[in-house]
Amino acid sequence: KSSRPYCTSCMVLIITARYASYYLPFLKWMDENQAFPTAAERMIFDADLMLAGTMDLIAEMDGQVCVFDFKTRECKGADPRTKTYPKDAMQLAIGADIIRRQLSADYNLPIYSVIIDTETCQTGVKRWTEKAQIKHLKKALATNHYYNVMNDLYAS
Question: Most exposed of 17, 69, 94, 133 (fewest Cβ within 10 Å)?
Fold first, then answer.
């Protein structure tokens, strides 16, 4: 048994200070863009798609619900916004579409990748275009359908 008393407040302050360089740039971006968080680590589920997941952050900006996904990556001097991949957009697009249908929203929820460089803590926020979002949603739905068909075939 430790002789030091456990201090939750002290631990939170130590952890907060230790990781501040990772999250403060995004908090600044949120403030500058008037993004207001409404949910973090929100679990989503769609029975028809047989799909479940967790969305990192849902926020309201400019009167719209937006969906954010955080990634930490080694950027090796490159702008973190250039370190996004199609799989990032697919994950965001299908999650945002599930939320859109649950909310009965009449627009595609804007999707954002937040990339944090593991070496420099530089943060880049990329908003995916609606064209890219639709393209990657189609790919995600096709992939989901493929896996569901394969699961049905081999479940028998």
Answer: 17
